[in-house]
Amino acid sequence: LATHAPRVKLLDFGIAKVLDEPDAALTRTHGAPLTPAYAAPEQIRGGEVTTATDVYALGMLLYELLTGTRPYRLDTRARAAMERAILETEPTRPSDAVTQDDATADAPRQRARRLRGDLDHICLAALRKEPEARYPSAEALARDVRRHLAGEPVDARGPSAMYRVRRFVRRHRAAAAGVALAALLVVGWAVTATVQTRHIAAERDRAEALNRVLVDLFEGVDPTLGGDRQLTVSAFLASATDRLRRDLRTRPALQSELLAVLAASHLGLGDHVAADSVARLAARAAEPLPPGHSARTLAQSTHAWTRTYHDDYETSERIYRELLREASDDDLPEVQSDFAIVLGEMGQPDEARDLLGRAVATLRQRRTAHSRRSLASALDNLSSSYAEDWTQEGYDRAWPLQQEAVRIHQEMNGPDHPKTAEAMSELAGLAADRGDLATADSLFGRSVAILEAAYGAEHPTLATVINNWALRLDNAGERERAEPMHRRALALREAVYGEQHQETAGSIQNLAAVVSAQPGRYAEAVALYDRAEAIYRAVMPEGHYLTAFPVAGRAWAHRNAGRYREALRDGRRAVAILEASLGADHAIVTQVRGEVGFALARLGRPAEAAPLLRAALAEDVDLSEIDREAFTEALAAIE
User: I need a surface site. Which of 84, 466, 544, 598 has the fewest CB within 10 A?
Assistant: First the structure.
């Protein structure tokens, strides 16, 4: 309806719903009451219709008003294909849509320039697949439109580069090699979204500079333009680094952001040396930026993260502590969450949990899709921190946190996304730790299937999930199933990380545990533990708690072979390292003291053995069934 003002007024969406009567059903005759081409994803799925559905409808109308077309290329004659497009296809940017029909005409290009930036973001924010990620109300959408018309910053934005890169390089979440190229293809959108408070003209200038760099890069691999047809991904990244250093010297924010993305891509390829080198360049490029600038935070945190792959925790900690003081409110929760992972690896769980708790509390207050994904990652990390107490209390505290993380990943990414699979695998491990191996097997199996479908049969994330599944099978006494899984995980980690890396050492000692439990394989087990210890001592800081694990494992191998003096020696060595790094009251210290107690009992020293065995047999200490049975028998024999 057009008024004399003139104003256009929308009179009817089709079918209304009373929001304060949640149980009132809509009249249905033959399926969902909707116009398929304009239906929101939740309507297609048969989900709840809320104000977010109205926001989606407004987004569709705004899109058509701006572009003269719809955001999806839909075949309205084939309903199944149309519904699949609405559920799975990302809408075309309005600024791209106006040029697709006649890309050579001047008028479409002029319209595209007017739409690029705020109007792109406003439309796409209203059309997001997840209802909770859209504008919270029609008024919020209208307010952003008014801000755009007034030349003011708008709320609509994509996920920040800080978020995307930090999640990309998170420990045990390395991306496939092909993602390195994909990261460069989408980075124009990712980094532009971090500067929505700038004026539109500045954004356009920045985007055009980025586009020039990307065009030059990809011309370098186009054989029709004299490029190298056989260029590898690693060589492409090296070329990109050189080009960014040369062409963006006067743009420190853009240069440092893109270099951080390249560093993340090198990590995805498993090239930690190149990743660290490029991350250093990113940090250096960001030095002219003021403290708290998002690009500076991204570059420095990427550098701090790459240092952990070289076991340089001192440098990593120093950088992260500076970022805790400098980071903006938007970036701080992600800095806290990432630093907490590093603190956990350094054996400082209390401070790690404090940071994670603060990050979770902050992110719960935010409703954007970006914040929801950040919340899922923080919950993952906090759950893992509690689980690493190795106590039933820790597992019980971790369980609801990980369940929530899985739900968020399913909502944001879908049930078959690799991120969902990774979160699901963590939940699987907790299920096994809490004694529910059937649920664990089901969840692990589903996770592996999703990851293999997404990444293929060889990928570091897949290695981590298989390794964790094998550990739970080993703890449950199913060693015939566990050993081939451990060997597959070890082969993958050696290929990705090399032989001298803590991840490789972890797989070696896990395999050793399976081998040492089998008669006649004592020498093989000890050799594996020796190899793992040598790697840890070479790559970890002196006295790090991880260096104690192969020593404790070797004590267990001695015990299984009846070599109790050697078991006592290595058990005491492991306890000394763990007490110094984790504290005398840590549950893992109590477990290893039980190993010492067992050796003392077998050596005829009951007075020393009994209190150590009793403490290890406490209900809240997480012992394998085999160890609990062995310690119980040893204690009964001396009492």
Answer: 84
